[in-house]
Automatic annotation (TrEMBL):
Listed InterPro entries: Aldolase_TIM, NAPRTase-like, NAPRTase_arc-type, Nicotinate_pribotase-like_C, Quinolinate_PRibosylTase_N_sf, Quinolinate_PRibosylTrfase_C, Quinolinate_PRibosylTrfase_N
Protein's name according to its UniProt entry: Nicotinate phosphoribosyltransferase
GO molecular function: nicotinate phosphoribosyltransferase activity; nicotinate-nucleotide diphosphorylase (carboxylating) activity
Organism (species): Haloarcula vallismortis ATCC 29715
Keyword Glycosyltransferase: yes
């Protein structure tokens, strides 16, 4: 074996080797012809506004990729909502970034898809604790990107330990069914009590209560087995759920009837925005996994729109260098860069790189706040219907 894992190295990405082969052929042809035109290239998903808001993510990695190249780059801030038009603009000699297109689009497309799904989950249960449980659904090499994007979209916590170390956040979690099974059928109390005795004091005492018997039975047993139990988690498999809302309400009723009103209910397993809306009034928190982590990448494309100062876009793309604006009423507007923007509008395109130097700082907390503020500004309401 030449490599321990099937992972493209950071060095290969930076050097432009993580590219589609036709960009190598493009470079060969341009070099042979002695051509290296000055271009304006834009990263865009939709040419016009769609009224379906997306949340931009992945900008720090994109900036790191372009750093050191003799180009100027402008981009929307990370955590900005958009529903059309460019999110990034690159100006400079085309051969300086030709081979980087494949990686650049991946750095933006996948995180943006995940952050957008996280935002949808957040707005489906705005008053609930919603945690990111999705790392197991993706290649482990991108765990930090997944958790970063989930937090950007407004989720309250993450589960991936290594990812937390990368992004400067502490991962959280309690117990899986495997722990319960290791103690054997009928010995659930022993498992809960071992957990309570072993884990750090600051770890919430949340017991998994659907391993072997009825959820109501196990929840009550856990509450009586652990002093100051913070909550119980139901992760009941879909084949056994039936009317899950009724099960959750029954657990709540039983806990209350036996004096455990302070024990919270957490739900996980196949949670979607539809589930969150259905159950947010009967549960205190949720773990969302595949809905966020398995998000489809947004279909960004990078297109040359100007060649040596002249409009040059291909058919089906809006030609010319563009600016993007947010108006005070929350509108998202796209204009040619040499034309006036709307009245009372703020330009969203901000300097990212100047002559190869990154001129913007990246802070996750700032981006999270930006996303929440911008969602309110545009009247974001999430997704509706069955997701």
């Amino acid at each position: 074996m030449t490599e321990e894992f099937d992972i493209v190295s950071p060095e290969a990405i930076r050097e432009g080797r993580a590219t589609d082969a036709y960009f190598d052929r493009t470079m060969e042809a341009l070099e042979h012809a002695g051509k290296n035109p000055d271009v304006v290239a834009e990263v865009t998903a939709n040419q016009f506004a769609t009224d379906r808001w997306k949340l931009l993510a992945g900008l720090k990695d994109a900036a790191a990729l372009l750093e050191g190249r003799p180009v100027d780059v402008d981009a929307l801030p990370e955590g900005q909502l958009f529903d059309g038009g460019p999110v990034m603009r690159i100006e400079g000699p085309y051969r300086e970034f030709c081979r980087l297109e494949t990686a650049l689009l991946g750095f933006l497309s996948h995180p943006t898809g995940i952050a957008t799904r996280a935002l949808e989950a957040r707005y489906a249960a705005p008053e609930s604790t919603v945690l990111s449980f999705g790392s197991r659904h993706v290649h482990p090499s991108i765990g930090a990107m997944v958790e970063h994007s989930a937090l950007l979209g407004g989720l309250d916590g993450i589960s991936n330990v290594a990812a937390g170390e990368v992004i400067g956040r502490e991962a959280g979690g309690t117990m899986p069914h495997a722990l319960m099974i290791c103690f054997g059928r009928g010995n659930q109390e022993a498992a809960w009590q071992a957990f309570d005795a072993a884990v750090p004091e600051e770890t919430p005492r949340i017991a998994l209560t659907d391993t072997y018997s009825d959820e109501t039975d196990e929840a009550l047993r856990a509450a009586e087995a652990i002093e100051d139990l913070a909550g119980v988690r139901l992760d009941t498999t879909g084949s056994r759920r039936g009317d899950f809302r009724h099960i959750v309400r029954e657990v709540r009723w039983t806990l209350d009837a036996y004096g455990h009103e302070d024990v919270d209910l957490f739900l996980s397993g196949g949670i979607t925005p539809a589930t969150l809306r259905e159950l947010r009034d009967v549960a205190d928190g949720f773990g969302v996994g595949s809905y966020v982590a398995n998000a489809d990448p947004l279909d960004f494309a990078l297109d040359i729109v100007e060649l040596d100062g002249e409009p040059a876009a291909k058919r089906g793309k809006l030609t010319g260098k563009k600016s993007v604006y947010r108006t005070t009423d929350g509108g998202h507007h796209i204009r040619l860069a040499d034309r006036d923007g709307p009245a009372d509008a703020k330009s969203l395109m901000e300097p990212l790189i100047r002559d190869g130097e990154v001129v913007r700082e990246f802070d996750l907390d700032t981006a999270i706040d930006r996303a929440a503020t911008d969602a309110e500004r545009v009247g974001y309401a999430g997704v509706t219907g069955d997701e």
